[in-house]
Amino acid sequence: MKMSTLFLPLTAILLILGLCACDGNRSATDDGTRPAFLQIGEFAVNRLSAERIDVRDGAGRTLVLIPRDAPMPTGVDPNRVVRIPVERVVAYGYFEVATLLALGVLDETLVGVTTPQDRWYIPEVRRGMEEGRIAFIGDASAIDFERLKLQQPELVLTWDPSIIPLLNTLNIPVVVTTTPQAMCLGARMSFVKFLAPFFHREQEAEAFFNRIDDTLRDIRARTAAAPQQPKVMWGDVYEKRVMVEPGNSWVGELVGLAQSNYQFRDIFGASCIEISVERFLYSGQDADILFTYRDRKSGATSKEALGRLNALIKDIAPLKPEGRVYAPLPHYHQSGDKLDEILFEISAILHPELYPGYRLRYFDELPDTDPVITKDSAYDHF
Amino acid sequence: MKTLIIHCWHAMASIRLTIILCILLTLNAAWGYFCLHGNASLYMPMNDMGLIPWAKTYGRSSLLLTAWFFLLLFLLALLVCNTFTCTTDRVYRLLRAGKTTSPMCLAFKLAPHLMHYALIIILAGYLCSYLFSQVLTGQTLVPGTHLSLPGAKGQVTFTSFAPEYYQGQRLDFFTDHILTPRAHLLLSSENSTREAILTATRPVRFQGYTLHMIDFAPKSLGGMNMPTRIDLHIRKDPGVFLYLSGMALFSIGLLFYVCEWILLKEVNKQSV
């Protein structure tokens, strides 16, 4: 058999694939602007028709989005049907609430949260709770389901799938917003596009995405000729466990994009993944910068304080005088709608020489030791 | 027409084609390695949504990353045709010549061809799985809750969670972590009720479905106060029978092949 005879069908299949590729690029909705299928990390949005959108949530569950007045589709579990635009939402985490804010629907739709009013830094949420529009439905590990039911949510956004069976009995659809693997940078910045169809806010999602994209372009351009490539760790050592951000997380990818070396880039898995203390210490030997999960309230007041909390880590390089340690400020976790500013700030931390005069807004650089409060300074404070 | 068919048959049965296909499959696998790297989330949904819906959505939307997979399917299809024609050619010749040899000797000679047929059945089984499986994803249960299986009158109740924890001394950081997540299930049908233990590596069969534990919580004692739950995927997979049959056939072929090899060794020893 001649070689040319074999390559004929192969060329044919490659041609077909090419044609499919061209066709795939054309596959868009009627208005020609939105792709019919959009993958966002482990999430997906599939626009089947003007009347039906199938979405895949973080737990791999398919939910069907239909207009509010459309008849119930057949062959679909009613608990997986969401009528859009959604008008009443309960959100478990800060990330979901910040995404609602980014979409511009928080004021109109959010009716329940799992954090009490005094721990919120988002003015819209605080105001909503003061006015009674937004209810505290209990801590995430002890939800008051009666209170939740009173709020009459049409959708619950949660990271905790264990509530699904109970919410099924209440006929409230649930979207799981976390994934088994950490969200990469692309998924993190595109997550708004996953929630957008629930509220008919696709344009706002696109604008948010473009803003982040512009910031990333700026970071790439600024850091392209960075004189140094600092070594970065993101994680913490607790009493029994060591948790870090893996290399596949948005943090790991951002550090790489900003011409720096992420010390855990070879680790793959879930966000806040557990590793051995030996691995943490090994990576800490020559790291320049450590980002901790802890904030001041949980003891990250100085490098010395971190060393006191866990003597094992006191000798890692970032905790030495020439190293740098950053702790998140309390409002950091609730600032997902300002992801562009956060990415910009992280880049500024990695390359301070490229961002002269930049003042930190989301992180705090820890001093070597805790400030000594004398009697006089204490009076000064008052 | 007959000549054309015979010509095609001989072209397909060419051993040269086998070698070229094997080289192309190796190159394709190398291409796939780079496409898979960091993009596992693109391929994982195929496990539950099946090949055709996957190809129409994930496969089509990221063709630059998935083209190697479609090419792989094409090359595998060619390899199956090549293996079938090539094997059938030889089996036909063996059977014609077999009239003069003993049945045992013929069985030994057919062993490698049996393994080739088995390989085709295994591949067909996997294709069948990815084409016709019915999968219910993200079925979460907490103790005391139940779910009903579609199209069946069975009910699965999650009664309790009794995991096995790491109690060793060598891996300090692993202390109190769950080694075996054991979920006790009550499987009720119209006529009977039975208990079953589901673990992450041991699925439970019930009324034509298999229940697979995909995730569970909590993962350890202490740590975050996570409520107890198990996440299930429920599959009805018509391909399982096919590829298990293929594997059984392959084992029989292998057994005959090994027997022949041992016997030949003995004969050679005696002749020396």
Q: How would you describe what is shown here?
A:
The complex is a heterodimer of chains A (382) and B (272). With 382 residues, chain A is an alpha/beta fold. Chain A folds into 2 domains: 28-199, Nitrogenase molybdenum iron protein domain (Rossmann fold); 225-365, Nitrogenase molybdenum iron protein domain (Rossmann fold, 3-Layer(aba) Sandwich), CATH 3.40.50. Chain A contains 13 helices and 17 strands. Chain A has helices spanning 3-26, 94-103, 106-109, 123-131, 145-150, 164-169, 185-199, 202-223, 250-257, 277-284, 303-309, 339-350, 375-381, and strands spanning 37-40, 43-49, 52-56, 62-67, 81-84, 89-91, 110-113, 135-136, 155-158, 174-176, 231-237, 242-244, 261-262, 273-275, 289-291, 324-328, 363-365. In chain A, helix 7 (185-199) packs antiparallel against helix 8 (202-223), helix 7 (185-199) packs across helix 9 and helix 8 runs parallel beside helix 12 (339-350). The longest helix of chain A is centred in the N-terminal third of the chain and has 24 residues, at 3-26. The relative contact order of chain A is 0.09. Chain B is α+β, with helices and mostly antiparallel strands and 272 residues long. Chain B folds into 2 domains: 2-133 and 241-271, no CATH class; 136-236, Tick-borne Encephalitis virus Glycoprotein, domain 1, CATH 2.60.98. Chain B is built from 8 helices and 10 strands. In chain B, strands 1-10-9-8 form a 4-stranded antiparallel β-sheet, with no helix packed on it. Chain B has a 4-stranded antiparallel β-sheet with strand order 2-3-6-7, with no helix packed on it. In chain B, helix 6 (63-97) runs antiparallel to helix 7 (103-132) and helix 7 (103-132) packs antiparallel against helix 8 (239-271). The N and C termini of chain B lie far apart (54 Å). Chain A binds chain B through residues 1, 3, 5-6, 9-10, 13-14, 17, 20-21, 23-24, 27, 35, 37-39, 41-42, 44, 46, 56-57, 59-62, 141, 160-162, 164-166, 176, 179-181, 184, 240-242, 248, 274, 276-277, and chain B through 11, 14, 16-17, 20, 24, 38, 40-42, 44-45, 48, 57-58, 60-64, 67, 70-71, 74, 78, 137-138, 140-142, 145, 173, 175, 215, 217, 222-223, 225-229, 231.
